[in-house]
Amino acid sequence: DLATQTEGSGVEIGMMTSSPNLFLDRGLPLIYMGGDETGYLTRSTIATQPLSALSDSNPYMRMRVLAQLIEGTTSATFSDLLPLASDSHLLVRKMAMRAIGLSNSPSALPILEAGLFDKESGVRNGAIRGLQTLTGVDLTITTAELIIDAIETKGNFMFNDAAAFVLAKCKPVTSLRTLL
User: What digits encode the pLDDT tens for the residues 41-55?
Assistant: First the structure.
């Protein structure tokens, strides 16, 4: 492999991957983990940030705090997260959707439902993953109808796969069977 071929040559190698463990075990620095901003940011050189960084002008600081929230090392309220649902940076919006789902606030449901129709695919995927983790909130047939509409108009493989798990949480199941 490239690491073996360049060993002792003075050539430095970085990596961009969605599966970094094999490379990290070999001591290669991580440049980016495709599709997993949380994993990347928690392994990056960006230091842990205070909650106040959610309003920092640098999107990487906002994303670092969101990564901490998603990993459970920082806490925030739904109100802290709400402004990020409409952030201009698509990765901030994507990560905010996941964090909003973890807030388990009843107010999270309409925000996540709206996220299902964001113009960016990554944000829509973040919204469906947020709905997947949302607990303590009953997902109704209305949510199911919105998810099915999003599948039909905006869906992709990752979205559709996560949607199946969310649809299974919707109540009442008898109405869901009729809808499907």
Answer: 777 788 999 999 999
Q: Mean pLDDT score of the chain, rounded to an integer?
A: 83
Tokens read off for 62? 């906002």
pTM: predicted TM-score of the whole model, two decimal places: 0.78
Model confidence pLDDT, tens digit, residues 64-84: 999 999 999 999 999 999 999
Q: How far apart are CA 158 and CA 50, in angstroms?
A: 31
